[in-house]
Design goal:
Layout lengths: L28 E5 L12 E2 L2 H8 L5 E2 L6 E2 L2 H11 L5 E5 L20 E3 L5 E5 L9 E6 L6 E4 L9 E9 L4 E3 L9 E10 L2 E13 L7 E3 L6 E2 L9 E7 L11 E7 L19 E6 L5 E4 L13 E4 L10 E6 L3 E7 L5 E9 L9 H4 L7 H6 L2 E5 L5 H10 L3 H4 L11 E4 L11 H5 L10 H4 L8 E3 L8 H18 L3 E5 L6 H8 L7 E5 L2 E4 L7 E4 L2 H14 L9 E2 L5 E2 L5 H7 L4 E7 L3 E5 L13 H17 L10 H20 L8 H4 E4 L7 H5 L6 E4 L20
Parallel strand pairs: 1-5, 1-26, 26-27, 27-28, 28-33
Antiparallel strand pairs: 2-5, 3-4, 6-7, 7-24, 8-22, 8-25, 9-16, 10-12, 10-16, 11-15, 12-13, 13-14, 13-15, 17-18, 17-21, 18-19, 19-20, 22-23, 29-30, 29-32, 31-34, 33-34, 35-36
Helix pairs in contact: 1-2, 2-11
Length: about 725
């Protein structure tokens, strides 16, 4: 109570309204099972579309369990698609793998079963963020300086310090500035790499072809070192100088040792100007440029340049000797990294832009592809991580990147129409072995994150739980998983588990299997659903019904309300059912709480059952069980304000009024049975529900009774004859 110590007018706010109770959501589902990729530990992330599922947990392609196992259908992905197709809005997914309990990454952050690619010295190691065969991505390096930097010009006169390719015919004796060539050999035809040194053109390292034209009928080749320099002014007027160079890229000026690729339009040999080496069938050469962009040094590497045994220094001006031999020069500096799923021509699922070969900095590989991203969204959707050796340098990183590229893509061959590509293929990804009931149960780990069903315990919004992939496991494993779901739903109290019958079970097998469980929080459905194969591998596939049923639950809750039985509803996306159940067969299954999916002529494919697996007649129907869970959870969540309030008449009256208002709204909306509110519900919270001992021990007891609507499972019309005058 406020204190008033000085005279004045004071205004106080007070409330004359009862605390309202808001109904909780009932259509949020949880899906537990193996997927192609995705996180294994920690709080599951809510998904609102199948596209979200694919982004985090991969596509619907088949899983492969074991080293030499056969492909099995990815039931978890198919169930997620079915859930959203049938009206589901929110889905939590907990991925499980065999041996998940206690499983974790190594010192580099690599999970067992993750795909990896590293050079021999582990200077650069790429790996999929999560285990799985899908993690065998193909990474493609696309160099950002992708513009062709190769340039050519034909100046009239040479500039000091620059390299040129000189072509001249009929060079007179007066043009010889130095060299032991006989005067009688003149005139000569000459092709040479030259540089203006003072006033003369110096021939570089004897790189020249000289032919004596003194005898027109018998021209003689002369040694390349017989002339060492020429007088430019004495050359014939037809002499031609060609300068070929690399201009600075947009990313910055060239430096000595800048890595580059020289793209050849066609393999060629220009041995007289390259130190005596040819290129064989290579389509591209990798090496380094000098700061002036005039000299390209070819790296001796069996992967980058097969057949080049020793480094070769190539003046780019020499390319003028074979016009059209070279088509482009690209600088290998900064790059973008495409992550492709399904091979070198697969879909690009992620692109990392503006990467650098520097070992540190904001564009470095460890910063842009971190093992543990700062943002949760990045940790869930980034498919690849990278670590570098502690002593890695920029040059070493580039060398390692090129070393792990696919040699066949780097050098596609003379007859190939493909351009050279820098592809890195991750290998060694595995889906592991088939998960067991222990893996589905999971473990609680506050440090590394919980797994399996345990991970769902921290998400209070979930009301539907399903494990469709378990239905394709061995019978005992399937039964064990259902038992774990049963324990989870009871522990979490406000959850309903959807159980899948096994594919192709007979009526006797079904009744025996359903007899293992007696719980109002479980509902079983049969048979499996035939759908078109979304992967395109087969014409159609058969999948468990849980994903479809969870979507029907959600759709019914939104369209009608949780009080409506999720039955006589269309199964969206079904071609047909694996077994055609008739009325006589259902008469054997329905009393055992086995809900059938049936096809009706002119009415499509429908859910034709709404029972739980409970033997208690009070909780025989799914909608009654789920409606009471809804009421209990709504009242519990919205009356938390009453804890530690004074336990007296005022509190009791407030609680009564709040619950009565909530139930009156439910009755008015047609969710309770009764012609009047008095027939539909009652709320008591007074001395009749509490003893003095309860009050002394801080207990407030409120008794609530509601008349739930049961589904019209058997619609009966009694028809008899009457006389005309009756």
């Amino acid at each position: 109570m406020p204190e008033y110590l000085a005279p004045g007018v004071f205004v106080e706010e007070t409330s004359f309204r009862n605390k309202s109770i808001e109904g909780v959501g009932t259509s949020v589902a949880a899906l537990v099972g193996p997927t192609r990729c995705g996180p294994l530990r920690g709080l599951p992330e809510v998904l609102t579309s199948y596209a979200d599922f694919e982004r985090i947990f991969g596509d619907a392609q088949d899983l492969v369990f074991g080293a030499d196992g056969e492909a099995v259908l990815n039931h978890t992905a198919h169930a997620a698609r079915a859930f959203f197709d049938n009206g589901g809005k929110q889905l939590f997914v907990a991925r499980v793998v065999q041996g998940i309990n206690g499983l974790g990454p190594d010192a580099d952050g690599v999970w067992p079963g993750a795909a990896v690619k590293a050079d021999s010295g582990n200077t650069v190691k790429f790996f999929s963020r999560f285990p799985g065969r899908m993690g065998q991505y193909t990474l493609e390096l696309r160099w950002r300086d992708s513009e062709n930097l190769l340039r050519s010009e034909t100046p009239k006169v040479a500039s000091p310090g620059q390299l040129y390719f000189l072509e001249a015919r009929g060079v007179p004796l007066a043009a010889k500035a130095a060299g032991p060539i006989d005067d009688a050999a003149f005139p000569v035809d000459i092709q040479a790499i030259v540089r203006l040194d003072g006033t003369n053109l110096a021939i570089q390292n004897g790189r020249a072809t000289i032919v004596s034209m003194a005898d027109d009928e018998n021209p003689a080749a002369l040694a390349a070192d017989r002339i060492t320099s020429l007088v430019p002014a004495q050359l014939p007027a037809s002499a031609r100088l060609t300068r070929i160079f690399v201009r600075p890229p947009a990313s910055g000026p060239l430096a000595a040792g800048t890595s580059a690729e020289l793209r050849l339009a066609q393999p060629t040999a220009i041995s007289a100007f390259t130190g005596g080496a040819g290129w064989g069938n290579l389509r591209a050469l990798r090496g380094t440029l000098d700061a002036a962009g005039e000299t390209f040094t070819v790296t001796a590497d069996p992967v980058l340049n097969p057949g080049v045994a020793t480094p070769i220094t190539l003046p780019l001006a020499a390319l003028a000797a074979a016009p059209g031999a070279a088509s482009a020069v690209f600088v290998l500096r900064s790059f973008d990294l495409d992550v492709r799923n399904g091979g070198k021509d697969g879909e690009v699922i992620r692109t990392y832009t503006g990467l650098s070969t520097a070992p540190a900095g904001p564009a470095s590989l460890p910063i842009r592809l971190p093992v543990t991203p700062d943002r949760r969204a990045e940790a869930l959707s980034s498919p690849v991580a990278c670590v570098l050796a502690a002593d890695a340098t920029g040059d070493a990183i580039l060398t390692a990147l090129l070393a792990i590229c696919d040699p066949g893509a780097l050098n596609p061959g003379e007859t190939s129409l493909d351009e050279p590509r820098y592809l890195i293929e991750l290998a060694g990804g595995s889906d592991g072995n088939e998960p067991t009931s222990t893996d589905y149960a999971g473990e609680s780990d506050e440090t590394r994150g919980s797994t399996g069903l345990k991970a769902l315990e921290d998400v209070e919004d979930i009301s539907i739980v399903m494990t469709p992939a378990a239905a394709s496991s061995a019978e005992d494993d399937h039964k064990g998983v259902v038992m774990e779901v049963q324990k989870h739903c009871r522990r979490m109290r406000y959850r309903m588990g959807i159980v899948d019958a096994r594919s192709g079970q007979s009526i006797g097998e079904l009744r025996t299997f359903a007899g293992n469980f007696d719980d109002s929080r479980l509902a079983i459905y049969h048979p499996w659903v035939v759908i078109p194969d979304p992967t395109g591998t087969r014409r159609d596939i058969t999948v468990p019904p849980a994903g479809f049923i969870a979507g029907v639950y959600a759709r019914t809750d939104v369209d009608r309300g949780v009080h409506k039985a999720p039955a006589n509803e269309i199964v969206m996306g079904a071609l047909r059912f694996d077994q055609q159940i008739n009325a006589f067969q259902q008469e054997l299954l329905n009393p055992n709480g086995i809900n059938c999916l049936r096809s009706f002529a002119g009415r499509g494919h429908r859910v034709w059952g709404g029972r739980t697996l409970s033997s208690d007649p009070e909780w025989k129907y799914v909608n009654v069980r789920r409606y009471f869970l809804y009421l209990e959870r709504s009242i519990e969540k919205s009356t938390q304000w009453a804890v530690f309030e004074p336990n007296g008449e005022a509190l009791w009256a407030n609680i009564r009024s709040s619950v009565e208002d909530f139930l009156f709204a439910e009755w008015r909306n047609g969710r309770l049975l009764g012609a009047t509110p008095k027939e539909a519900f009652f709320v008591r919270c007074d001395r009749s529900t509490m003893t003095q001992n309860d009050i002394d021990n801080g207990r407030m007891v409120c008794l609530v009774g509601v008349a739930a609507l049961k589904p019209a499972e058997f619609v009966i019309f009694r028809i008899g004859q009457k006389t005309a005058d009756a």
